[in-house]
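In this supplementary section we document a worked example of the pipeline. Step one takes a protein sequence of length 127 as its only input; no multiple sequence alignment statistics are reported here. Step two produces a three-dimensional model, which step three serialises into structure tokens for compact storage. The input and output of this example are shown verbatim.
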Amino acid sequence: MNNVSLKKALILCLPILFFSINADALGKKEVLAQQCQDLSATVASLVSSQVRADCAERLGLSSVSIEKAGYLILDYSYPTAKKELNLAVSHLRYAELNSCNRYIQISHSKFEAQKIKNSLIDTHSSV
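The serialised model returned by step three reads:
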């Protein structure tokens, strides 16, 4: 008798549990997209301090890729967003390794982009 009650309770709770998991994934998606927008603005602010044109160009490209990734995350295009973040990380790595101005901010931005990408992988596997 007790077993039957437990099964009924479990069956009744499954839709609520699924809704809770889905709502969490939606919230995480929006947080990741906002992080992309914030990071994009941060990277864009580094462009004006660059003396070398190649540094400014790479940082500008990185900013655009990160912003694009944010929009792709909102559209559930996780694989494409991951590619954009990989591209952004490679541009930031170039700026980091070629001694562009504001090295610490560039290095931190690269780390943040990698963190978003790793969170995106976790989000994609949980949805």
